[in-house]
Amino acid sequence: MAESAGFNKVYNPKDVEKRIYAFWEENRYYHAVISRKKKFTIAIPPPNITGSLHIGHALNNTLQDILIRKKKLEGFEVLWIPGTDHASIGTHNQIEKELRKEGKTRFDLGREKFLALCWKWKEQYEKKIISQLKALGCLCDWERLRFTLDEVCSKAVREAFVRYYEDGLIYRDYRIINWCPRCHTAISDLEVKTKELKSQLWYIKYPGLHSSDKGVVVATTRPETMLGDTAVAVNPDDFRYKGLVGEKVILPLMKREIPIIADSLVDKDFGTGAVKVTPAHDPVDFEIGKRHNLPFIKVIDEDAKITKEGGRYAGLSRELAREEVLKDLRNEGLLIKEEEYSLPLKVCARCETAIEPLLSLQWFLRMKGLAQPAIKVVKEKKVRFFPERWGKVYLDWMENIKDWCLSRQLWWGHRIPVFYCEECGEILVTRTDPKECSRCQSKRLKPDEDILDTWFSSALWPFSTLGWPEKTEDFLFFYPTDILITDPDIIFLWVARMVFSSLYLTKEIPFHTVYIHSTVLAQSGERMSRSKGIGVDPQILIERYGSDALRFTLTYLETGSQSFRFWEERVILGRNFANKIWNAARLLYPYLFQRRGEEGLKEGLTPIDEWIIQEFNKLLNDVNLYLTQYNFSSYAASLYEFFWHTFCDWYLEFAKKRLAEKDEVCLKTLSLVFKNYLKILHPVMPFITEEIWQKFQFGKSILEERWPEEIPLPFGKARELVYSLLDLIKGVRTIRSEMKINPKVSLTLLLNSSLTKKELIQFFQENIGHIRNLGGVKELSLVAERPPQSSSYSTREFEFYLPLGEVIDVEKEKKRMEKEIALLKNELAKISARLADENFRNKAKPEVKEKEEKRKEALTEKLQRLERNLSYLQ
Question: Which parts of the sequence belong to the Methionyl/Valyl/Leucyl/Isoleucyl-tRNA synthetase anticodon-binding domain (predicted)?
Fold first, then answer.
């Protein structure tokens, strides 16, 4: 019999994980090939090269790896495509932050040198990200590693742009865009977040043309933009201004005549009902300006400073210009009043600089026609969201989608594939760089300076990574992918865009399932943030507790809810579970070493053997169901419950005597259940399961095994019989605990013969050894009724009594209970009075009231239990 010498007393993941991952790499278990098997494909949500992975990445990639490993064990040809994203704005911000420390900007370096820095940054952080994914245990196909700016992806990006352009879906126009003065680029609505700002609402008088005219008072939150006003607008249904529409007023400070117009976009309940119209600096005003053919005057530039069109305010920052404008309005008696006003301030999601709405010439993608098929496939359940509520979120956005601003005024990214002829003005959009103008043959061609929004290349990720637009073997075999696992923040930024891009460019859905996982919050409930020092580093947790511990804990917590709170101590759950598995393996190693097939298992099984097999079969069915439904938390919880309690607490305890006797049926049962359990545990805890598999020499690798099927077993009542046995032992333990009986004292168990089924009486008698060892019972006898001074325990199947007179000091115990009952009644009276108090009910927070209700419930239950136990002693 093999010894357990190879097993340390405590599982040390540092001794295991790097070695095991190197073994997987050496044997290329990660690698997929074109085969006759069914395929299963996931394209990893590519981490940004802006830094190391955070805890959200750890959750996201753990869930993907669970599905990848399960499908591999099920015999699928499994491909998990790894890669990273160039993250244009994010990378710009990181590198420019470093440059600022040297007192430089990217413009000091120039485009070429700045891009060289970006590529150097990419090499550094991509290497770090890959090492972190490996440390987490991700079974990615590293031979197919992609980067959104590599040659393969770049070819796909250019093809997509040209195809959209040729089909009339990409156009260039002046529109109001979100401009970030700090990042110095246009950004989409999805890259903007909103903050509540306590500000002012200013009421400004716009005088009439003549001294006899009353003029109009407008209300505004941005007085500095009035320098670019070209009209005052009112709602056509607002009777207050019926006679003024068509008249003109004087624009204060600028002394320019502007018309009063009527437009339904004006909210007549805002301010005075009359609003200033600045078409070049507000999206609503832009629409009004187009409808009424108003001039567009740009008075704030890309640095958020006043342009020369702002007259004497030119060169001032927007903040200083506001102060000067308000001061001058006061001096001229045109600032009628000011009042406090809260408004949603739009800021850049990256740097939190206030967004400046600017009229700008940009490239756009028409979305209406692209959105409809993407809406249809979700409504028809061809693409399904889990949890389902996220499908509605997707549809709400897609049904109200606006054209996508594609261009960014940055350097790191995909250059827009457009060239302008400096001779004739021709615009060339081509799949390869043109050498001359197709119209006039001039060689004086100027490339567009802008790059594409990062999300344009990300939208192509599921198919660009497989070689599209070429019909590669990989693309033909592995596409479409099967599932996307991602977080709720990028449903619009990424998920929706992948769906419409794939439908338009490949005529296929990119995946049939989208699983949206929870957002991981800090212990305080705040979003994790490295810059604020809030959160935990997954790499540190892996070093301290091991990858399996982190993976299991995150999976256990992933209930599909909106969010969950996470902090370091929670990983102790996973670490303790790993140690439990390891210790059980140490116990079993001498008996199961090198055991392979288990033929003839049906013969000689005890009811307890049948029970553990039935329990495993139930676990297997539950696990299959949970993973099919992407119920990751229940998957982890069921694995934990079975192994810790059903297998270790009960079956191993029942099996100890038979193990010592080397009972072959027991060994076969243990071998089959333990090996199959390791297989279904493997997806979430791959390192420890592989290590145990190899130590036991069950085979070369657990990854070469097959996902288990139910263990065949004839139908019987073993499960019900054993559950009654467990109930009986737990009942004895409960009474021991409640009556504070010395653990060393053995008890007499009296079974009520008339209230207990005959087959159970026989089964209990046959298993008196287990009852004795696990319940501390010295003998089992049959009685017709409960004797005095005995505790009682009953279920629908049986009833038993434990005589207490000889094992405890009855009078002393009665006094203790009576005293505790009095204290409980007193405390319950206080709680009831508090809950009945009207002042408490009206003013206490809901969580405080709920806490008191739960406390009352718990104390009431304890009181009832004590009163019942006291009655036993009468």
Answer: 609-747
Backbone dihedral angles phi then psi of residue 262, each to the nearest 5 degrees? -115, 130
**Quick one: how far is CA 165 from the chain centroid?**
35
CA distance linking residue 749 with residue 764, whole number of Å: 11
**Structure-block tokens of residue 37:** 């098997």
- Is residue 599 predicted with pLDDT exceeding 70? no
Kindly report which listed range (31-40, 561-570, 713-722) carries the lowest average pLDDT score: 713-722
Write the DSSP symbol of residue 651. I
Architecture of domain 812-872: Orthogonal Bundle (1.10)
With CA atoms as reference, report the closest residue to 589 among 484, 693, 463, 732. 693
Q: What is the dihedral of CA 708, 714, 715, 717, to 10 degrees?
A: -100
pLDDT digits (tens, 9 = 90+) for 190-239: 788 888 889 999 999 999 887 667 889 999 999 999 999 999 999 999 98
CATH number of the structural domain 719-808: 3.30.2320
- pLDDT tens for 307-332 read 999 999 999 999 999 999 999 999 99
pLDDT the model gives residue 125 = 94
User: Are 334 and 204 spatial neighbours (Cβ–Cβ below 8 Å)?
Assistant: yes
Identify the top-confidence range among 337-351, 361-375, 600-614: 361-375
The mean pLDDT value for 159-184 works out to: 94
Residues recorded for the chain: 874
The two structure tokens encoding residue 360: 């700008």
Give the CB-side neighbour count of residue 146, counting CA atoms within 13 A: 26
Which CATH number describes the domain made up of 31-160+457-517?
A: 3.40.50.620
Structure tokens at 344: 């949603």
* Domain formed by 551-671+684-695, architecture: Orthogonal Bundle (1.10)
Pairing assessment for the beta strands 185-187 and 256-262 based on DSSP bridges: unpaired
Sequence-distant (6+) residues with CB within 8 A of 196 are 342, 343, 344, 345
The H-or-E segment that residue 519 falls in is strand 519-521
Determine phi and psi for 205, rounding to 5 degrees.
Answer: -90, 130
In this structure, which amino acid lies at residue 641?
E
Using the CB atoms, write b or e for 528-557: b if 16+ within 10 Å: beeeeeebbbbbebbeebbbbbbbbbbbbb
CA 739 – CA 209 distance, rounded (Å)? 96
Distance CA(402)–CA(371), nearest Å, equals 10
Q: Is the pLDDT of residue 388 over 90?
A: yes
- C-alpha R_g of the chain: 36
At residue 153 the predicted structure's pLDDT band, cuts being 50, 70 and 90, is very high
CB contact at 8 A, 135 and 546: no
Calpha distance 30→74 (Å, rounded): 15
Cβ(52)–Cβ(129) below 8 Å: yes
Distance between CA 129 and CA 39 in Å, rounded?
27
- Checking if the pLDDT of 1 tops 60, the result is no
- Domain covering 185-357, topology: Isoleucyl-tRNA Synthetase; domain 2 (3.90.740)
Tokens 């002042």, residue located: 839
- Strands 747-752, 799-803: pairing kind: antiparallel
Weakest-pLDDT range from 142-151, 375-384, 488-497:
488-497
- Tokens read off for 120: 């150097």
CB 448 within 8 A of CB 415: yes
pLDDT computed for residue 320 by the predictor: 96
CA 269 vs. chain centroid, Å, equals 41
Any residues with CB less than 8 A from the CB of 317 and at least 6 apart, and which?
304, 305, 306
Residue 31 burial class via C-beta count within 10 angstroms: exposed 0-12, middle 13-18, buried 19 and up: middle
pLDDT score recorded for residue 145: 98
CB 82 within 8 A of CB 141: yes
Bigger pLDDT: 391 vs 242: 391
pLDDT of residue 815: 85
* pLDDT mean over 375-400: 95
